[in-house]
Write the structure tokens for this entry.
Amino acid sequence: MHRVVIVGGGVGGMVSAHELRRRLPADDQVVVIEQSSVHTFWPSLLWITGGTRKADQVTRRFSDLREKGIQVVHARVDAIDPEARTVRAGGQTFSGDAVILSPGADLDPSLVPGLAAEAGDLYTVKGAESVHSRLAALTKGRVVVLVSRVPFKCPAAPYEAAMLIDGYLRQKHRRDAVQVEIWAAEPMPMGVAGPGVSEAVAAAVRDRGIAYHPSETVEKVNDGKLYMKGGQEVPYDLLAYVSPHVAPPVVVAAGLAPAGGWVQVNRETLETSFPNVFAIGDVTGIGLLLGKPLPKAGTFAHRQAEAVAETVARRLTGRGGDQKFYGVGECFVEMGRSVAGFARGNFYHEPLPDVHVYKAGKHWHAAKVAFERHWWSQWW
Ligand SMILES: Cc1cc2nc3c(=O)[nH]c(=O)nc-3n(C[C@H](O)[C@H](O)[C@H](O)COP(=O)(O)OP(=O)(O)OC[C@H]3O[C@@H](n4cnc5c(N)ncnc54)[C@H](O)[C@@H]3O)c2cc1C
């Protein structure tokens, strides 16, 4: 009998658990340790901001999972020993023949003085609800979408949020009275994907009359104003922000990531320097030749989970192939009013990622809605 212990029941955790369950004999155990009682489908969160989804439409309870051969332990992991392949959670110690770490990135607004006191964190369900309810009441003024630090997950998301806010205001005939702006601590949108993608997103933002201020880093937030490093003061009536991201402290304490950094892995097998301990998804830092890291995105967490599940199953059973992660991923870009763009490419292509941008249209929005439906129906 074997046991695989998976830390985190997000995108990487759920995909690897189901892929392993399919591949391992019935008496092998697949254990997922997750601190939350619900799984959230993060791409739909942007639709809460835009007003077309409610919180209960973007979450499902782990207790309602159809596959009962996956043991979900509802507890917070507070220690990992990668040498012994043990994980401590809820006062219990779980040891695995293999351990897969997929705890994502933690959001830490406290790294920007004053930010944590603001309600509009675009990357939490509560924050997205707060942004939408205040947007619904806003008749005039200034909405500021803030990217506080890099790296952050889903590089398209803040730009999508701004365009969804724009679309909502247009639908309500209030756009002329409300300015929408993006202030971002990065020189261009989705820079790793290359100039084609960056320019397509920047043009979509520009075409909607959204003012874009790149390479602007916020120093503090106080009394309805952003104070930027360059000295500018940016007043707002509604702030929708992306918090600084950090690796969960438990992986740093385990010696798997340096302080202020991310877990280092073999970029194709996702194995850490400890045999049979793998890390996937947002918790990893995978450097690319162009000098920037692989973006933190569900599309990569998903494919990495499939590859790791195949590797682990082969090592435990002696059967199966040799699947690796080759850096391929894709992304919808929501633009408001049921229109979306789409890009797909190979991010391990050298010297630069090779990414193709498809023409935006209603069909890409429909494809994202279909993907959301598929995400839920496959497991719940
Ligand atoms: C608004 C938004 C929109 C997005 N849209 C897209 C998109 O369109 N396309 C795309 O590809 N990506 C998108 N993403 C990014 C995508 O959601 C993430 O990249 C993906 O979820 C990463 O998967 P993961 O498994 O690494 O982490 P997560 O999915 O974040 O899962 C981590 C899990 O680990 C749990 N956890 C953390 N620490 C512990 C602990 N100590 N003990 C127990 N459990 C723990 C967490 O509760 C969480 O459930 C979006 C993200 C956001 C926020």
